[in-house]
Design brief:
Blueprint: H1 2-77, H2 85-98, H3 101-105, H4 113-119, H5 125-140, E1 144-145, E2 151-154, E3 160-164, E4 170-174
Antiparallel strand pairs: 1-2, 2-3, 3-4
Helix pairs in contact: 2-5
């Protein structure tokens, strides 16, 4: 009996220790489980964001290709301009001298045509004549081509820049 009492006392002492370890193991298991779920969720979110950024990049690339294709088609359809920058500038001068400002604006690159047409509103004949005389002097001055030959500029007495369109006509970028 005494032996049994001693065993009971030992079991009573060991019981709290086994409960403590059991609780500790369960607690650690829960913490590790939460940590694993957190890391897996974080990895999944990053993967999702990565895939979304790739999709956005592909959409942007497609839109850029579409814009470039449309720009190319518009450029190919545009027939206003000369075979040289000087010829285009002479055509522009001739149109302005005739008072055909709409035609003159068509010698500019596509997105600048409307702005050029509007620039004649409110301009005096005297100012237009001064600019035309300066442009006539500009034709006589040598200009320079860009390294790839697609751009040309004259910088005296007025700055005039040109762009070569894909259909081999020169358009005015700015005066």
């Amino acid at each position: 009996m005494e032996n049994q009492n001693q065993n009971n006392q030992i079991n009573e002492i060991n019981k709290p220790k086994s409960k403590f370890w059991k609780f500790t193991l369960i607690f650690l298991g829960i913490v590790i489980g939460i940590l694993v779920l957190y890391v897996a969720g974080l990895w999944g979110w990053r993967k999702y964001e990565w895939n979304q950024s790739i999709k956005r990049g592909e959409i942007a690339e497609e839109n850029l290709k579409k814009l470039m294709r449309e720009d190319y088609e518009q450029a190919m359809a545009d027939t206003y301009g000369g075979k040289t920058p000087q010829e285009t500038l002479q055509m522009y001068i001739d149109a302005v001298e005739k008072g055909d400002y709409e035609l003159a604006s068509k010698y500019f690159i596509g997105d600048k045509q409307e702005k050029e047409l509007n620039s004649f509103n409110g301009a005096t004949d005297e100012n237009i004549e001064k600019i035309i005389n300066l442009l006539k002097l500009s034709i006589k001055n040598e200009g320079g081509y860009s390294w790839d030959g697609n751009f040309f500029s004259i910088d005296k007495p007025l700055y005039v820049s040109f762009k070569l369109y894909p259909n081999n006509i020169w358009k005015i970028i700015e005066i």
